[in-house]
């Protein structure tokens, strides 16, 4: 019996804005790769336009932003506008991680962020969230 091939989940991880710290983003990338996902890391200091363009060009399933600068709300507003302009805002699972206080979670969710993983979140929780959400999309 031949089993159906499973689609590999493609994840774009980006560091928007001027934040120059990416150790956490790289740890998350490694964890996602270890879980069998294909990860595209765009590197530091990415503009919202560059993030949306990369997400479109790479045909990713998930966009993950790592923000430690405290500018997560305005950066996410700009990224959301660019994802919408690119026509892919509704097609992506969108995660934000980093220094994100609980008081800002609702604002990010209203912008369109699907999940927030603050600094120190377990890689297993991030992987589990992505896998569960992508599997539920396939079964619908």
List the helices and strands and how they pair.
Blueprint: E1 10-14, H1 23-34, E2 38-41, H2 48-57, E3 62-67, H3 72-85, E4 93-98, H4 105-111, E5 115-118, H5 123-139
Helix pairs in contact: 1-5, 2-3
Question: Any overview of this molecule?
Answer:
The chain is α/β, with parallel strands linked by helices and 140 residues long. It has 5 helices and 5 strands, in the order βαβαβαβαβα. It has one domain: 3-Layer(aba) Sandwich (Rossmann fold), CATH 3.40.50. Strands 2-1-3-4-5 form a 5-stranded parallel sheet, with helices on both faces. The longest helix has 17 residues. The model has no long low-confidence stretch (mean pLDDT 93).
Short description:
This protein is of the alpha/beta class and 140 residues long.
User: Radius of gyration in whole Å, from Cα?
Assistant: 14 Å
Instruction: Specify the biggest β-sheet.
Output: 5 strands, parallel
Mean pLDDT: 93
Low-confidence stretches: none
Question: What's the CATH H-level homologous superfamily?
Answer: Cobalamin-binding domain
How many beta-strand segments?
5
Order of helices and strands: EHEHEHEHEH
Reported CATH architecture: 3-Layer(aba) Sandwich
Q: CATH fold name, please? A: Rossmann fold
Query: Whole-Å distance between the termini?
Result: 25 Å
> How many structural domains in the coordinates?
1
CATH class: Alpha Beta
Could you say which overall geometry the principal axes of the C-alpha atoms support? globular
Structural class: alpha/beta
**Widest sheet, order of strands:** 2-1-3-4-5
């Amino acid at each position: 019996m031949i089993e159906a091939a499973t689609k590999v989940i493609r994840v774009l991880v980006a560091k928007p804005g001027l934040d120059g710290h990416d150790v956490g983003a790289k740890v998350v990338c490694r964890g996602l790769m270890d879980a069998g996902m294909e990860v595209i890391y765009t590197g530091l200091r990415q503009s919202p336009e560059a993030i949306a363009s990369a997400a479109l060009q790479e045909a990713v399933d998930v966009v993950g932003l790592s923000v430690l600068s405290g500018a997560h709300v305005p950066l996410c507003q700009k990224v959301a506008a660019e994802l919408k302009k690119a026509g892919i805002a509704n097609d992506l699972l969108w995660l934000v991680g980093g220094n994100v206080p609980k008081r800002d979670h609702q604002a990010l969710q209203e912008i369109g962020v699907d999940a927030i993983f603050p600094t120190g979140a377990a890689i297993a929780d991030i992987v589990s969230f992505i896998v569960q959400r992508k599997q539920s999309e396939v079964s619908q």
